[in-house]
Specification:
133 residues, alpha+beta, Jelly Rolls, four-stranded antiparallel beta sheet, three-stranded antiparallel beta sheet, 3 helices, globular
């Protein structure tokens, strides 16, 4: 489900750091997404999962974390609307972190393959040419 430019926090976030061309904006707007509402304190992905999709936060707050040897959660980073906290999924066969909601969240899910194709066209995205897809 494409989001309109004015409702697209991913586009707003990218445009806060990049001057996007029309083709780049179109690629982001056309990225097929499944929008999903997730309750607070739920995992979106877990350490050890084999990723097939990436997640963008549209509303709410989330955090990436690992579980320590004594079973406690160690938060690595916090995420807000427009963040794609598991973008590294494009590069990984197995996830090395978990991503969970702190508050109720609305997220956009899209395949790692589609994500890799999209970020390749954005200058400075840091996606190497040999990315798994």
């Amino acid at each position: 489900m494409p989001l309109s430019p004015s409702d697209n926090p991913i586009l707003r976030k990218l445009e806060s750091v990049y001057s996007l061309s029309g083709a780049e904006r179109d690629a982001i707007l056309k990225l097929p997404m499944q929008v999903q509402d997730i309750r607070a304190d739920q995992d979106i992905v877990r350490e050890g999962d084999r990723p097939t999709r990436c997640c963008a936060i549209l509303e709410g707050f989330a955090a990436t974390y690992t579980v320590t040897g004594d079973g406690k959660r160690q938060i690595m980073s916090f995420h807000i609307a427009g963040d794609i906290p598991d973008l590294q999924s494009v590069h990984l066969e197995v996830l090395d972190i978990s991503l969970g909601t702190i508050t109720p969240c609305r997220v956009a899910l899209f395949s790692t393959r589609q994500c890799a194709s999209c970020v390749r066209i954005i200058p400075g995205s840091g996606v190497p040419s040999g990315v798994r897809h």
